[in-house]
Design a protein that fits this description.
alpha/beta, D-Maltodextrin-Binding Protein, domain 2, 3 domains, four-stranded mixed sheet, 21 helices, 14 strands, 39% helix
């Protein structure tokens, strides 16, 4: 397995204490930067009286046990190690709550936090993307700031030119301290899962083709009396065997011509719709599929109501297995790649994660009066010490060094409070989520404590599939506004059509399909495709 983060390259420039010293010491920037300190750049802790306001969503693995990130052992250690006091500000929980609060803060324009952690490249979350954030003086352009006060993040990106391309705009402007996945093992964390013990009971082989899955799900229904052979949280429907049909549901790069395609308008999408509608009609897909939430999925996958699904390895296999084995010691669920259409076909597309997706990227507010301290605080995450804290927590408490490797302590692996592993890890670090650091594969090798979880790391890995996943391209501000307007309409119409067809309230005929395509064309869907291709062309020239 290829390790994407050549940590040894960074280690060569790390000095004692896991820090990097830039040329010169003390302040080197404009007085307007604020947050004066006499501590040399790259040294920690920083001697400062500044308190930074840091706005970010509270991770779902933290919130059950702590109301604020600053209350966690991680938050306390981060402030101690950096020397910077942080006032962590969290938006309400909910699907769009963070976006709504961010928009309100921007509209108000006063008292903006020093640091804003968000996905700035996701056009559905931040209309206009990072280019608009910079142009509207919401986000601070970081090029000069990094030159003066953030040598560690610069070193990481210098050692990884492909990563560097990902985290800046087309004109070369840096806008955030990014979350980066440092290994291929970290790119695949979600996919199909199936009851292996049921396969064994029925004498069925592990399914490989779509026909195999049909046979298996039919057997689950008829021989296991399973009412919902395949269940899925509906927001995850893009993973419902879509790649089997030679595409991805939304944006992807075509393996045929290297151009951006939208799966929603491809002929293969029609075939997928027809197949899923038939499976739903036959009772192979959960009758409640459009309303299933995670809690219901968890129940169905542990009580025998469902036999296969799509979920994350940690919260799926890692959560269901110990619960189910309390009453059924034979319970076994395994992770499998999406099936192929025909035996011997090569898997081409997959929902691979990306080294940089924009997730939880920490930007400095353009109105911050503490730019130097904010930059130096965030740069800590890319030092060796910061790398260890963000990924593993506190030496001697949450992990120990054994034979040169960070090994989580019994306090984490068997939490005395009975917390799930994800929650005990999240109290001491951010590796189970995201943030301004490089994620280390060493965490996931321990987070995936079951052999079935470790097998998922290779089972989900489709070689070369990541090059067909659209990277974090940045349309221009004008393009972004146009794109958002088009795709809001397109996605709404496409979602409604998909739901009607799969649930059987609309029959998929030539006339039905042609009307659907004509509707999207009238919404200028082709213009959206053209915008994405232009953005990809500019991205490739960075």
């Amino acid at each position: 397995m290829k390790r994407l983060f050549p940590f040894f390259l960074i280690a060569l420039v790390l000095l004692a204490g896991g820090t990097v010293f830039a040329s010169g010491t003390g302040q080197s920037g404009p007085a307007a930067a604020g947050g004066a300190t006499t501590t040399p750049v790259g040294q920690y802790p920083i001697q400062t009286t500044v308190t930074l306001n840091y706005w970010l969503a509270l991770n779902a693995n933290v919130s059950p046990n702590f109301a604020n990130l600053g209350d966690t052992p991680f938050g306390q250690a981060l402030m101690k190690n950096t020397g910077v006091k942080i006032n962590f500000l969290h938006p309400p929980t909910g699907t769009n709550a963070a976006r709504e609060q961010l928009n309100l803060m921007i509209a108000d324009g006063t008292n903006m936090p020093d640091i804003l952690e968000f996905n700035w490249v996701d056009q559905t979350q931040f209309a206009g993307g990072p280019g608009k954030g910079l142009q509207d003086n919401i986000l601070l352009k970081l090029n000069d700031v990094w030159d003066q006060w953030a040598p560690n993040v610069k070193n990481v990106l210098s050692a990884n030119p492909d990563w560097d391309k990902m985290v800046k705009t087309d004109d070369g402007s840096y806008y955030c301290f990014p979350f980066l996945r440092g290994s291929e093992k970290l790119l695949y964390s979600q996919g199909i899962m199936i009851r292996k013990d049921w396969l064994d009971d029925l004498g069925l082989a592990i399914p490989d083709t779509l026909d195999d899955y049909y046979t298996v799900l039919k057997a689950f229904k008829e021989q296991k009396n399973c009412p919902a052979p395949f269940t899925i949280v509906w927001s995850n429907n893009q993973r419902l065997f879509v790649s089997t049909f030679g595409m991805l549901k939304n944006w992807y790069i075509s393996a045929d011509n290297g151009r951006v395609q939208l799966g929603l308008i491809q002929p293969q999408y029609r075939t997928w719709l027809a197949t899923m509608a038939q499976w739903y009609k036959e009772g192979l897909i959960d009758a409640d599929v459009v309303s299933i939430q995670t809690a219901q999925q968890n129940t169905k996958m542990t009580n025998g109501t469902a036999g296969a699904t799509v979920a994350s390895v940690g919260s799926g296999i890692g959560t269901w297995t110990p619960v189910a084995r309390q009453t059924n010691p034979r319970y076994e669920i395994i992770a499998l790649p999406d099936p192929v259409l025909h035996k011997g076909d090569k898997r081409v597309y997959s929902y691979a994660g990306q080294v940089y997706s924009g997730q939880d990227s920490a930007a400095i507010s353009a109105s911050s009066k503490n730019i130097e301290i904010a930059a130096r605080f965030l740069d800590y995450g890319y030092t060796q010490d910061g790398h260890m804290l963000y990924n593993f927590g506190i030496l001697g408490q949450s992990y120990n060094m054994i034979n040169g490797k960070a090994i989580f302590s019994p306090n984490i692996m068997n939490n005395p409070n009975g917390w799930p592993l994800a929650q005990s890890m999240a109290a001491y670090g951010r590796s189970t989520g995201a943030g301004p650091f490089v994620q280390d594969e060493g965490y996931i090798e321990q987070y995936y404590a079951l052999p079935e979880q470790l097998a998922a790391l290779s089972n989900y890995n489709v070689a070369g599939a990541d090059k067909y996943v659209l990277p974090a391209v940045t349309p221009t501000q004008a393009e972004s506004s146009e794109m958002a307007s088009i795709m809001n309409d397109v996605n709404t119409a496409a979602d409604e059509y998909m739901t009607r067809v799969i649930l059987g309230t609309e029959v998929l005929t030539d006339a039905s399909w042609n009307n659907y395509i004509n509707t999207l064309q009238k919404m200028n869907v082709q213009r959206a495709v053209d915008i994405q291709n232009a953005a990809l062309d500019r991205y490739m020239k960075r």
